[in-house]
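Message: Study each token:
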Amino acid sequence: MRPKLMDSHSALGTIASYAANRISFHLDLRGPSLVVESACSSSLVALHQACESLHRGRVEMAVAGGASLLLAPAEFVSTAHARMLSRRGRCQTFSAAADGYVRGEGGGLVVLKRLADAQRDGDRIHAHRYQQRRSHTWHLGTDARAQQTLLEQVYRRAGVDPSDLLYVEAHGTGTPVGDPIECRALGMTLGSARGAGDALPIGSVKTNVGHLEGAAGIAGLLKAILVLRHGVIPASLHGTPLNEAIDFAALGLDPVSALRPVQVGARSTVGVNSFGAGGSNAHVVLAPPPPGAGAGAPEGHGIVPVVVSARTRDALVEAVARMGRRLDGLDEADFSDLAATSALRRDRHARCAVVLANTARQAADRLRALARYSPDVRAGAGARTVERGKVAFAFSGNGAQWAGMGADLLERDPVFTAAVARVDALLTPRLGWSVERDRGRPSPGALPRRRSRSRCCSPCRWPRCRCWPSGGSGRRRWWGTASGKSLRPGPQGRSIWRRHVT
């Protein structure tokens, strides 16, 4: 950064050590908050440090990961002078044409707990860390024997048989020097121990997303978790023709060049390599969660909005189609998270579409119907967005009530239930019947006589208004007709409903 552009905030925005502290502050996390710097193995070494803290009982939960952003030219210049970058713009791991890597952007975080604690808390467990270890090799990591020693220690201490490995995510930068050394260590330790006809599948996510440098380890870890979850190894790209300097057959290694299904069992494991340019290397062994442990079945989330946004109408149609395809293959346990992300964590563009659904399949069907402008979709809408829009609430008079109105909220919303009890105490002496007691009547014939029906709506509407602030929706504009006018705020911002019913 040029000195003339620096100000009092420059240090907070550029010093790497503040990154972890900012996350801790934002999430209100208490305990150690630090940045680990070991070059390209930083995120996996950070994972190791977090697991050690959990193992020693220093913390009950940890968040570990890494991120990489390409914000300045200095690293490009230095790595280009060192001839680390690919002239072709491809990470060609295990290929005879490998000539360096491509720098990439990205990041990831994982939440870590001891297995017993996660099972006790009912958390959804994505994978179980079998063993992890880090070691130090020579500068630039050119010692195959040191890498081999690291792997031997990890698998011996974990008690994992190499034949149980489904896959190993290699560091695999796609350099003429690094790939042969890593493959030699993997083959001598793991591949050759598996026997003839059972070559160890290997690959590298760098061929798909580039080299994320400090975040490279967490990218490989997330890929390994997905292999265990879906039972499929993604293809590593740009790997042919294979490097003739690596005898894959003799080493018992098999680069995965096409999508490959695998059978995930109770003893299955996946390994992840991550090497630092200074010589700090890490390896982790993952296993699927124990059967029935931490299934993480979510509580009923009810109907939630799924929001899709784009800059133009055509782009919105395409975005809706993509979201539909994403929802088709979504685990129902992830639906509420996806819906929350779509509504709260995505930019709003000029065009917006939203549907209400309580399952991923229902949301996908309604989005597709909305894209076709089907008149059958009543639980969805598409419109232009506004930059500073305000929320307005409209309330009708008699005729909006139905048998059982508000019964579901009485069962699951404590704010609504408390407000109904307050209203009921005012109305019961005047109506001669209890709004709270009769709210759940199933048949239309259970509704009170016509003269009292207009008073059925306000006892539901006013408590509903009490729920909105608790859900983060402040009052903006009000409009009502007939008894709906009773919800209009008075001069002091208070509802005139109580005066209306008395």
Notes: The two ends are 69 Å apart (CA to CA). Residues 136-141, 442-446 have pLDDT under 50 and may be disordered.
